[in-house]
Amino acid sequence: MKPLKIGELEAKTPIVQGGMGVGISLSGLASAVAEQGGIGVISSAGLGVIYNEYSKDYNEASIYGLEQEIAKARKATKGIIGVNIMVALSNFADLVKTSIKEGVDIIFAGAGLPLNLPSFLTEGAKTKLAPIVSSARAARLLCTKWFSEYKYIPDAIVVEGPKAGGHLGYKHDQIFDENYSLEAIVPQVVEEVNRFASEHNCHIPVIAGGGVFTGEDIHRILSLGAEGVQMGTRFVVTEECDASIEFKQSYLDATEEDVTIIQSPVGMPGRAVNNDFLRKVKQGLTKPQNCPFNCIKTCNVVNSPYCIMLALYNAYKGRMSHGYAFCGANAWRCDRILSVKELIDTLKSEYAAAALA
User: Fold this and answer.
1) Strand duo 39-43 + 259-263: pairing
2) Domains along the chain with CATH numbers
3) Which tens digits make up the pLDDT trace of 229-261?
4) How many angstroms separate the CA atoms of 61 and 47, rounded?
5) 305/287 Cα distance (integer angstroms)
6) This prediction's pTM
7) 119: which residues sit within 8 A by CB, 6+ positions away?
8) Starting from the edge strand earliest in sequence, which strands make up the sheet with 166-167, in order?
9) From residue 198, how far is each of 29, 56, 131, 193, 195 by CA, in Å?
């Protein structure tokens, strides 16, 4: 595998570990991936719940939690550490400012188009900015907007296909349409991004994610023009993943039929492991009493069947009867828990075999 270069950053292993909230990818997982030459990513979603003991003010606890997780990751590795920040979060701006202040290497921003992300950069800041998109059109729109408004060019662009886990940037009828598959959209995004980059005499690496499971998958996606891959699901079933053992076990126990598409209170479709909690949601047996966090801009407690932040926090803590696990399309293929090093070594050897074939 060729290293992934993002400006002066160089990941010897061209794998970005996807940001997974609530609490699934914190400093433990991120530092382990960074130590193996990949890019480790802390998810900022839900830190206000995880660090609730510090402050009952959700935003205050979120900022403190992010500072703590970045510091812990930095202590554990000299590798590349990123933060994933959802545009849909009500405290998006504060989390971006905190990440830049703490000097993270790169911010990945998705679940909405981060059109104003460069506006938060401070003088001398070295933090790279990588938006997450789901189409060539969105990539072009974002590049054009950033350059015209801020004279800033994305340091990298992540394209997520419909086989990704968690919230998806697709309509329900697009999720299983081959025209929107990762293999179909990667060349389109690469072409669009390369055209913009050549117009501005620069280079913007494309990172592709959503359903990437094996080293052979990595080889196939990189052959389409991407320079790195983003992987989330495989890293959940590692020893270093910050999730509870019950969360990891839900992947190991899942069948292909258990991996399902749900409608999130956020207003987007999502992919998760079906369980009793989600079955109760479908039957209309869950209903939040109030909105304890005001964490997501697009979530309205009046219309929400449950509090997504609490459901995901419960799953992170292992209380699966009161929550559920987001997952990628291939979660059912996970069959054992291994270390991050073992996983990356396996992916490398599978990649090498595919390159020789």
Assistant:
1) unpaired
2) 4-243+341-356 (3.20.20.70), 245-322 (no CATH)
3) 999 999 999 999 999 999 999 999 999 999 999
4) 7
5) 5
6) 0.95
7) 149, 150
8) 166-167, 269-273, 259-263
9) 36, 49, 19, 9, 5
